[in-house]
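Narrative progress, year one. The postdoctoral researcher (J.K.) led the effort to move from monomer predictions toward full complexes, under supervision of the PI. The following entry was the first complex the group processed end to end, covering 502 residues in total.
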Amino acid sequence: MQTKAENKRIVITGVGLASPNASNLTEFRQKLLAGTSGISTIDLRYMDTAPAGICSFAETKYRKKKENKRGTRAGCISVYCANEALADSGIDFSQYDKSSTGVYIGLTEHGTVETENEVYNISCFDYNVDYWTHHHNPRTVLNNPAGEITMNLGITGPHYSIGAACAAGNAALIQGVQMLLLEEVDLALCGGISECVDSFGIFASFRAQGALAEHKDPTKASRPFDLDRNGIVISEGGCVFTLERLDKALARGAKIYGEIAGYAMNSDARDFVLPYGPRQAECMKIALARAGMTANDITIINTHATGTRQGDIEECKAIREVFQDASNVYVNNTKSTIGHAMGAAGVLELAGNLSSFEDNIVHPTINLDSLDPACELPGIVANEPKQLDKVDTILNNSFGMVGINSVVIVKRFDAY
Amino acid sequence: MTRDEIRDIIIEIIQDIDEEAEFDGLDADAPLRDQLDLDSMDFLDIVMELRKRYQITIPEEEYPELATLNSCVNYLEPKLQSVAVS
């Protein structure tokens, strides 16, 4: 294992999140370990109800109701998560300059919700566009959620969104790492956000594709790797991390959740929706190589699996290829508990596993009643948490439509 | 609509924009913007809400007429004369 200079090592020092079952990391971890589903149902415009993950958090803790009304749901979640992450990190901006702080937010999509709402609004006025809101453009520009964070916190460094389908959370995390390594910024607020439960179109499109989960009990609708899985449960949510260079983090006595050891992104270059295991395997291998690790060095693989027939099988094939010779690797899935939080998925799922470095427990994949033989992997942690002697590393997979793959490896700070 | 009714409508629209707006001690002849947390986008919200509720179109050059509570009432009184409060 190579040793890097402290200013070339990037660590996670704060976590802020809003999940369908929690509004902070402690609560989130408790729910994941207990296997308490955050999935309920949502009434959708033009559609029936569908299983969905909806977040409940203190929306006016960090800004006024007026500002929430002016901005977007994504902005509201972003502002909450960013403030929570900063509070958790202990950073008060006496250690960092706001002009050297970067905000990088991953989004699967943005503007769909706002556009649907406006089209509905003008439908009440015979489609007269004189009634189209002047808020449409500032709400739908792609930097909106990241920009709402900077306005709220007075951060004058760079901000932008990373559009990367359901790999977006990881992609934004990677962006933060890179900008810190380039010394473009000294502090990065990065993560992913999803407001997509407010879009009937996203539900309708998954349904048209035969990929929207259905179950009479919504808490059982999200069931990756299970024989009875029938699609994705859509969730809103968000997670923002504070990332710092290790030397600075140590100098201010920060709590260090983990170190970003390696990462990779690549493209299938094949299909709009179908995932491709061989390219996912390549992505994992690149991330391992960059981390200076082998498959045997990984303790937990947190899977992307969303509960679609083909997607889960492809990822399992990829994991089998990369980890065929690895022993003591444990595999879990966070979406079984919180659904698929789209742009937030990668980071929210990573956050849900970060506490493993402290409690050495692997949270379970729930709703895994009949394991699909095509998804069989050694080390799948099903329905009950698994206590280990020590968790040293987490490999986090996040893949998305149009063939985008991302892998982030985080290691225990004192691991190597 | 009476002047008092128009005044109440304007306050109701502003309350809808900002539920926490404080109207106690509001000077009806001083700019709303100086006394409440309102910016140009909020004034466009007021314009849009008047359009939705009463089909009133306010040309951009007449936006300054909405500066104070009293100027709003003065400007809207003839436009809402024949409108009954719903």
